[in-house]
């Protein structure tokens, strides 16, 4: 059944499964973060309080750890590193987003970063 959906050639099947595994890893990371944590906006809004900031970072670390373990187990079951690679890519991005929100709450956000690039582009217009 799966071969019919993906295609009969072994190379296509393998590549499609790797892609699905990678996407599954990304999904696992985002799902764990959304289950265990609030939004970056919440971090930025309430992160000025040291107790709340530490609590928020605890859940960021917990979500990253949980998703890494789940993606690692999925990689073991698949016999491929693709889910773990996908979760790693997503976790790096999620860590940065939440870290930056915490820095903004403290007033310590670095001037560089993707958000400053987008702000410059927005000011210039199309």
Description:
The protein has one domain. Helices cover 83% and strands 0% of the residues. It has helices spanning 2-6, 10-36, 40-46, 50-78, 82-106, 114-124. By secondary structure, the chain is an all-alpha fold.
Indicate the low-confidence ranges by residue numbers.
1-7
Structural class: mainly alpha
Task: Report the total helices.
Answer: 6
Global shape: elongated
Sheet having the most strands: none
Helical content class? over 70%
End-to-end gap: 47 Å
Q: Evaluate the radius of gyration.
A: 18 Å
Overall domain count: 1
Quick description:
The protein has 126 residues and is mostly helical.
Task: Produce the secondary structure layout.
Layout: H1 2-6, H2 10-36, H3 40-46, H4 50-78, H5 82-106, H6 114-124
Helix pairs in contact: 2-4, 2-5, 3-5, 4-5
Supply database-style keywords:
disordered N terminus, single chain, 126 residues, mainly alpha
């Amino acid at each position: 059944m799966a071969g019919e959906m993906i295609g009969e050639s072994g190379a296509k099947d393998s590549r499609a499964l790797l892609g699905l595994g990678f996407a599954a890893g990304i999904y696992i990371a985002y799902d764990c973060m959304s289950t265990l944590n609030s939004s970056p906006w919440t971090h930025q809004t309430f992160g000025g309080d040291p107790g709340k900031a530490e609590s928020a970072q605890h859940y960021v670390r917990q979500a990253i750890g949980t998703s890494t373990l789940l993606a690692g187990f999925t990689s073991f079951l698949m016999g491929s590193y693709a889910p773990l690679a996908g979760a790693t890519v997503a976790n790096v991005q999620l860590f940065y987003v939440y870290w930056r929100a915490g820095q903004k709450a403290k007033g310590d956000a670095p001037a560089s970063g993707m958000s400053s690039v987008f702000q410059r582009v927005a000011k210039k217009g199309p």
